[in-house]
């Protein structure tokens, strides 16, 4: 799938419409956010931004495919309402964090955590060019350098947690930082991975189900990632 005519934001809109036509998602709020955040601003120059495929962004990692971003946004939609707190672990290009920020709005909090400092710097530059720039400036959107396996306690508890890299098991700090009533979407596994939907019930217990089989880069240490092991 490549949308080939028009300028960036039009081609981005056409991509979002195509994902809806293919039945990948149907949420109006998700479509609105994805239409506002031009994916073309978030991929390295020369990368086909509107193709439904993961793309290399350096440092042995990829930006996830548009259909995965759409699916995760839809799974988290009820937990991305205005005023809510959202955490994006492995924020990479910053694309999904920007979508979160638009959905939770200026009264909410969208927090990205990424362990490659260069990606944090470039993701901030990407966001500054995007529709989410004002939220970054105003402070409801932030991207931080850190080991995402520890979460980001400063703005916990979170209504929504997204993990963009596959964990061997669900990190306990992320469970601890999930609000009762909150939802985490996290790929778990090694080569074969399940995208797990983790709901924290109001009594603090967890309900966990597998949404689909996925292939993400590992949630690991910076050294292991840069070694490519
Ligand atoms: N969701 C992002 C990036 C997905 S790739 C996007 O679509 O653009 C996964 C990201 O997780 C990479 O940027 C990688 O550097 C990061 N990552 C892997 N392990 C991490 C860890 N322990 N802490 C923080 N970030 C991590």
TrEMBL record:
One of its GO terms (biological process) is methylation. The keyword ATP-binding does not apply. It holds the Pfam family PCMT. It catalyses: [protein]-L-isoaspartate + S-adenosyl-L-methionine = [protein]-L-isoaspartate alpha-methyl ester + S-adenosyl-L-homocysteine. It is an enzyme of class 2 (transferase). InterPro entries: PCMT, SAM-dependent_MTases_sf. It comes from the Eukaryota. Keywords: Methyltransferase, S-adenosyl-L-methionine, Transferase. GO terms for molecular function: protein-L-isoaspartate (D-aspartate) O-methyltransferase activity. Its EC number is 2.1.1.77. The keyword Chaperone does not apply. Belongs to the methyltransferase superfamily. L-isoaspartyl/D-aspartyl protein methyltransferase family. NCBIfam families: pimt. This is protein-L-isoaspartate(D-aspartate) O-methyltransferase. It comes from Eucalyptus grandis (Flooded gum).
């Amino acid at each position: 799938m490549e949308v080939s005519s028009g300028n960036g934001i039009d081609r981005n809109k056409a991509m979002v419409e195509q994902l809806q036509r293919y039945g990948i998602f149907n949420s109006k709020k998700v479509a609105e956010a994805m239409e506002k955040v031009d994916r073309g601003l978030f991929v390295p120059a020369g990368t086909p931004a509107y193709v439904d495929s993961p793309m290399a962004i350096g440092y042995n990692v990829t930006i996830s495919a548009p259909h995965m971003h759409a699916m995760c946004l839809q799974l988290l939609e009820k937990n991305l309402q205005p005023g809510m707190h959202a955490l994006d672990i492995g924020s990479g290009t910053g694309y999904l964090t920007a979508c979160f920020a638009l959905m939770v709005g200026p009264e909410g909090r969208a927090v990205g955590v990424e362990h490659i400092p260069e990606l944090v710097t470039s993701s901030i530059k990407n966001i500054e060019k995007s529709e989410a720039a004002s939220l970054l400036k105003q402070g409801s959107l932030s991207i931080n350098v850190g080991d995402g396996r520890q979460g980001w306690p400063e703005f916990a508890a979170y209504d929504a947690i997204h993990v963009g890299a596959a964990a061997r098991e669900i990190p306990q700090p992320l469970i601890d930082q999930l609000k009762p009533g909150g939802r985490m979407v996290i790929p778990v596994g090694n080569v074969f991975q399940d995208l797990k939907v983790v709901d924290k019930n109001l009594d603090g217990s967890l309900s966990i189900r597998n949404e689909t089989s996925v292939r993400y880069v590992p949630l690991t240490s910076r050294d292991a990632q840069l070694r490519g092991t």
